[in-house]
Specification:
Largest sheet: 4 strands, antiparallel
Order of helices and strands: HHHHHHEEEEEEEHEEHHHH
CATH superfamily of the largest domain: Butyryl-CoA Dehydrogenase, subunit A, domain 3
Helix content: 40-55%
Strand content: 5-15%
Number of strands: 9
CATH architecture of the largest domain: Up-down Bundle
Number of domains: 3
CATH topology of the largest domain: Butyryl-CoA Dehydrogenase, subunit A, domain 3
Strand order of the largest sheet: 2-3-7-6
CATH class of the largest domain: Mainly Alpha
Radius of gyration: 21 Å
């Protein structure tokens, strides 16, 4: 099946990304992750030169014109080095859907985004609205030619380093409690890189991993943005919620790719260590338990990768694949935690130090079960598509 999916062109893309990761990403990750340093601007520029921010954007708009498959293929390679680097490519998006902007502005900013020069931070979650995006309470009120944003957001990664914040906010309260997703819009809040927007204060959240950039809690208090800074699908019919959900389908495939990259990194490091580490007069790779553990790890990585290839192919042929996206996100993230933990066990005490990258893979893998929808949310999506919603559920 791998031969079926990996054309000669895709193999070339994979090999180039693998070489780039080995040369440019892994040395930076090994240096900066232990001290919680940020992804360097120089590395971002190199990624822009490679076209990695514009993988799925059309060539007309400055991108590579490739699909979800290639996006995931490259993301796996980058995540093998540093998950945050594989994540930052998702912060570039086409701005052609912002209908309130002149076409020249949309095109210019989209081309900048494809080069990594106009990147977003995404503000969806709130202190009381994580997996339940229909419960968003951050408000946007139209005042003349401006929207006024008031409310709190949580888990907004890259809020300082981004060029704009893409924010989900409520413009009206739904009359039907069973349709809480209505009345939401997605806004663009322009800001200087390295700062928060005017009318917004925040603080970094202390994390145990996912270093390379900061994750913020934000408080908007009268933050004003132009009336036209709304992503297509305004209205009061819940299009903002639909935009967020559609974004999450591809994001979940992307998370699967990142999970696979982390697991593969841990597997490769554990294999190398097991062949070098000598105990009782022989390499520990000679011990059957170690050999079988590595075999199980490799099998799980490959199973997740083949499912990801299938899901990405569905998406590239126009299938929404929300159930399949949930499946691959759930399976790959759960797999990544197991495999990285097994790798750490193979390294023993050495694995529990910052002298080896496996602890980084382990910490970051744990996050993949939480962001872009928890494992429990994925199982809910899958079971709902299989069985229909339970009659007792009275939620939108």
């Amino acid at each position: 099946m791998t031969e079926h999916y990996l054309t000669e062109e895709r193999r070339m893309i994979q090999e180039v990304a693998r070489d780039f990761t080995a040369r440019e990403v892994i040395p930076v990750a090994n240096e900066l992750d232990p001290i919680q340093g940020d992804i360097p601007d120089d590395l971002r520029r190199k990624m822009g030169d490679m076209g990695y921010f514009g993988i799925r954007m059309s060539e007309e708009h400055g991108g590579l014109g490739l699909g979800v498959f290639e996006y995931c293929l490259i993301a796996e390679e980058l995540a093998r080095g540093w998950m945050s680097v594989a994540s930052i490519i998702a912060r570039a998006a086409s701005l052609m859907g912002v209908e309130g902007w002149p076409e020249e502005k949309r095109l210019a900013l989209t081309r900048k985004a494809a080069q990594g020069e106009y990147l977003a931070a995404v503000a969806l979650s709130e202190p009381n609205a994580g997996s339940d995006l229909a419960g968003v309470s951050c408000k946007a009120v139209l005042d003349g030619d401006e929207w006024v944003i008031t409310g709190n957001k949580y888990w907004c990664t890259f809020a300082d380093g981004a060029d704009y914040i893409q924010l989900l906010a409520r413009v009206e309260t739904p009359s039907d409690p069973n349709a809480r997703h209505t009345g939401l819009k997605t806004f663009i809040i322009d800001k200087p890189r390295g700062e928060l927007p005017k009318g917004c204060q925040g603080a970094p959240i202390p994390k145990i991993g996912y270093f390379g950039w900061k994750t913020w809690e934000l408080a908007f208090d009268g933050c004003r943005i132009p009336k036209e800074n709304v992503i297509t699908g305004g209205g009061g019919g819940g299009e903002g919620f639909k935009n967020a959900v559609n974004f999450l389908n591809v994001a979940r495939a992307h998370t699967a790719a990142r999970s696979i990259g982390l697991a593969r990194g841990a597997l490769e490091d554990a294999m190398q260590y097991a062949q070098e580490r000598v105990q009782f007069g022989v390499p520990i790779a000679d011990f059957q338990e170690t050999r079988f553990k590595l075999a199980r790890m490799a099998s799980e990585v490959e199973a997740a990768r083949q499912l990801m290839y299938h899901v990405a192919t569905l998406m590239d042929t126009g299938v929404a694949a929300d159930k399949e996206a949930a499946m691959v996100k759930w399976y790959a993230s759960e797999m990544a935690e197991r495999v990285t933990s097994d790798a750490l066990q193979i390294l023993g005490g050495a694995g529990y130090t910052k002298l080896h990258a496996v602890e980084r893979h382990w910490r970051d893998a744990r996050l993949t079960k939480i962001f872009e929808g928890t494992s429990e949310i994925q199982l809910r999506i899958i079971s709902d598509r299989m069985l229909g919603r339970p009659s007792s559920r009275n939620l939108a």
